[in-house]
Structure formats: C-alpha cells, structure tokens
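Hi V.,

You were right to ask for the full record rather than a summary. Here it is.
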Amino acid sequence: MPDDDSHWLQHWVHWTLLAGLAASAVLLTCGLAFMVGQGHEHAARHETLGMLCREAARFNGPAITTLGLLVLMITPIMRVIVLLLGWALRRDWLFAAVAFVVLGLLVLSLSLGVG
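Predicted structure:
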C-alpha cells in the first residue's frame, strides 16, 4: 500500500511542476511577443499583484512577462505545499513537519525579499 501512496504523491508533484513550468513558459513567450510587437522600451513598476494582473489583462508585454516570472518562482513553493499535504494525508508527520518548516522558510525569504 505505501507504494500506491508514494506513486500518487509523485504523480501530483510531477503535474504541479509541469503545470507551473508550462504556464510560466506560455506567459513569458506571450509577454516577449507583445513586447516585440508593441515596442516597449522598459517595464513599469507594479505596486500590487492586482495592478500587475490588470496590466497583463490589457496585453501589456512587460506585465505578462513579470507574471510569467512570478509563476516560475511560485512553482517550487507549490511543490512543497503538495508534498506537505500528501505527507499529511499519509500521516507521515515527520516529513510533513519538515515540509512545513521548508514552506515557512520559503515564505519568509519571499517576504523579506519583496520589502
């Protein structure tokens, strides 16, 4: 039975990483295409995520590219979340606790890096 649980968890981790990479690649490619087509010289600073999403919805190339980079940066965090949930569902508390600590460190480093 542990092999089935392990396979299930590996499957979800794989698809999480693949989806994050694919979404990031699509956003980066589209953003670069819009920048080449529209001739943007530099990217504007976006103060909030909502502002960034509104600019991306207006087909602003630098905003779409920035969104693609954010998706790429969030992908490993999503992987840790999937592992944390998977290990918690399997009641593997030691690995779940380690994943929780890693997630806390990732969130801390992201919050310190944004400021």
